[in-house]
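Job type: complex structure
Entries:
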Amino acid sequence: MASQTLYDKLWDSHVITDFGDGTALLYIDRQLLHEVSSPAGFVGLRERGITVRRPDAQLAVSDHAVPTRGRAEPIADLQARAQVALLERNSAEFGLRYVSLSDPRHGIVHVIGPEQGFTQPGLTLVCGDSHTSTHGAFGALAFGIGASECGCVLATQTLRQTRAKNLRVLIDGRMSRGVFAKDLILAIIGQLGAAGAVGHAIEYAGPAITRMGMAERMTICNMSIEAGARVGLIAPDETTFDWLHGRPMAPAGADWADAVAHWRTLCTDADALFTREIRIDASRVAPQVTWGTSPDQTLPIDSRVPDPADLADSAQARRCERALNYMGLKPGTPLEDVPIDHVFIGSCTNSRIEDLRAAADILRGRSKADSVTAIVVPGSGLVKRQAEIEGLDQVFISAGFEWRDAGCSLCVAMNDDRLEPGVRCASTSNRNFEGRQGVGARTHLMSPASAAACALEGRLADVRSIEPA
Amino acid sequence: MTPFDCISSCAAPMAEADIDTDIIFPARFLLHTERDGLGRFAFFDHRFEADGSERQDFVLNREPWRQARILVAGANFGCGSSREQAPWALASLGIRCIVAPSFGEIFQANCVANGLLPVVLPVADWRQVLRFAQLGHLIEVDLKSCTVARAGAARGDRIAFDIMPRQRLALLTGLDETGLILHQESVRIAAFEQHQRRQMPWLFNPPASPAC
């Protein structure tokens, strides 16, 4: 057989029918469901008078609309309460596993899927959420879908999909102090552009990736969609297997050895061809901060706000101007001179225990600037519990942060965590779109350590200038 | 799903690149669980002032584009979140076709699933259609011949576009993808499952519920 990429192998092993036009009907091994994109799918099942084809292959949790405080009380927002109750009801009616808000395992869908071992190498895994690419960190073919497709998976356990082209991002070198996976992926998106990887599945490879733990790999794959790619992949290895071993829903007993033997075959063949390839030297990447309203508008923290006048392409100049206008920034201003009002540490990109540790290392024994409001939203109840065992909650609270319960929170601002117009936020989330954190709110994306540094300084700050305590 | 064959309408020009689904359908309205009548939230923060009045600088609030059934959008239109509320809201406004140099992939698939035709054009062709849109010309989009043109244009002046045959068929017939799969693929799906169950039994016997 011809040499194959990891993506090719995952695709080929799930084809039920090849339609010969670049599309195929794929078998879907797992689906994660949340409250926002699932209602229509259940309506469709009722209209057809059919059941869920494989209830055992679904896992449902409410994360987008849930409040991150006062969780012992019923949800105050009646719409949010109804939406969460609807998923709970639908799950019960169709016999699906539902992780309730009061369950200690509750959390963001892309945090708890891996945490529970629901996510595994070699799977096709979907969710009505564009950040499903996160699960590609395990060598799963994972991608975000729409509500109609969610319904199709509930009914048929399949989806018709268009085969993507292969794009490899090779990352050499070692990240220097103060630089994290988030900085790398922002730099990669900056290089590719917001639409640069449309139609492609990205495989991240190279020594810098191999050295990473699973949390960092998830951060990398999570943001593939911000370069336009639905799929981000990393070949599974010993790090992956060790991380999964013993997880509640991971293969166990005699199955474990068989599963690992299969997972070891999931890598790109040495001479497989990629449509495109880019190389990044991790040692040359500085801490990143976005200055605009698209994740590709990113710069090293020691830069100045760009000037549209410097851009030769008029469309690019207009895009830059539009972003600066929304962000309230003047060309030429040093980024480090930009004051901030709010700090958000959380989201499916950066809410795992490793992220909280990195932020706590900067904050330990220090206090946030008085002008800043800061919140930490752990990715799951289990992350929160682990952080409390390690005393990280006390580090955050002593530094003046609010210590919240798990959920999407200020990454999507569907719950009551919303910023007022003009409020400027240092955020570890994945999108700096207009209005993403509230109407008129201004988002600067960065790593958890950088966000912690910003909280201390009350402005966009270079984390390298702060010694970890 | 409403079949699509040919529409003729003025087209609203929205040339900025990277208009994401948060702009098309702001997240705070995602708390609505129904899918009908979402047009009132489309482009909300660009369409309305804080007091609820219409913003005059927004194209869909101006004549003749208020009645537009076609959008001529910039590159990477619909990037970002997978929310299908974005095409639901556009459809509810009466939009049936979006012409752009490129689309966010999930959004593009969501459009087809809802009877909205996404037309991808090379930049030079797109610019021409954008110009017609800005001038308020009537534009004709014909999925039978896969062409876009100013209404009444001679055959030689029509701009051809590519669309995947299966997507074209789905739009022309108003086909229900899930229904078709249930009807045509059930035997093959069952055979695949049987094979996979033998090869990878662990995929079929996860614990009944996630354990703490």
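Summary: The longest helix of chain A spans residues 78-94. Chain A has a mean pLDDT of 97.
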